[in-house]
Amino acid sequence: MTVAEGIPEDAMQRLSHMQPEGKTPLFTSDLSVNEFLLVREAGFRPLGLVLGSSIYHVGFQLARWGRNQELDVLSTAMYHARELAMTRMEAEADVLGADGIVGVRLDIEFKEFGSDLAEFIAVGTAVKAEKPGEWRNNTGKPFTSDLSGQDFWTLVQAGYAPLGMVMGTCVYHIAHQRFWKAVGNIGQNVEIPQFTQALYDARELAMARMQAEAEQLAAEGIVGVQLLSLPHRWGGHTTEFFAIGTAVKPLRADHTIAKPQLVLPLTD
C-alpha cells in the first residue's frame, strides 16, 4: 500500500506525473499569484504541491483537579503526529528533487468518526533554486517555511535562507480554584496567581522546545513566530500551547544587511 517514508502509491503516481519525460513539467501550487511571482523573482521555481497526513489517536491522561501540570502523554501525541505529517511532506518534496517547501500550512482537524481521532496535515509548495546553492538544512532535508511569498522574497533578498519550521508544544492542565476562593473573588478586581503561573509555565515550555529545535539546525534565529493556545476537545481547564516559526541562517558568514539609502525630497 505504501512506499518509503510513508508516501502512498497514489501520491507517488501524482508526483511522477509532475516530471514527465520529454515534456515541460506541470506544477501545482497553493501560492497566490503575487506570492508565485515573488518566489520566482527570488530565484526559485515551483515544482508542485506536496503534503503529508497522519490520522492519530490521541490518548488520555488524568490530571489532578487542583494542580497545575503538563500532560506529557498528550504533549507527546500532538508533537509526534505533527512530525509524521511534516516528514511525509518533506519526503514528497524529496521525490521531486526540491530544495525547499514554501508557504507551509500545518492544520489539525478532529474527526466525527472518532472523538479521540485527529488528522494532522502539512501542505506547501515544493521549490527548486534556479542557481546551485546550499539550500538544504544540516539534516539533509529540504528547508520548510511558513512565511508568505512576500516575506520569503524579502528574506532571500536580505541575504538569509530558511532552514526549517521549528515548533514546540505543551498540553497543560490548569488547576481549578477552590470553591471558597472563587466565591471570595466575586465582584473584585484581583489577579488569580495559579492561573497566571500555569499559562506562563506552559508557554515557556512550548517556546523552549521550539528554540531547542532551532539550535539543532544551527540557526541564527527564528522569524514569524506564532504562539497559539489551542483548546481542542479537552475541556476548559486543559489546553495546548503551540509555538511555531521559521529558523533562518545568513547565506554567508560575513553577511551584513545594507542600510537603506536616505532619499531627500526634491525642492525648487
TrEMBL record:
InterPro entries: UPF0145_dom_sf, UPF0145_YbjQ-like
Source taxon at top rank: Bacteria
PANTHER family: UPF0145 PROTEIN SCO3412 (PTHR34068:SF2), UPF0145 PROTEIN YBJQ (PTHR34068)
Similarity comment: Belongs to the UPF0145 family.
Protein name as annotated: Heavy metal-binding domain-containing protein
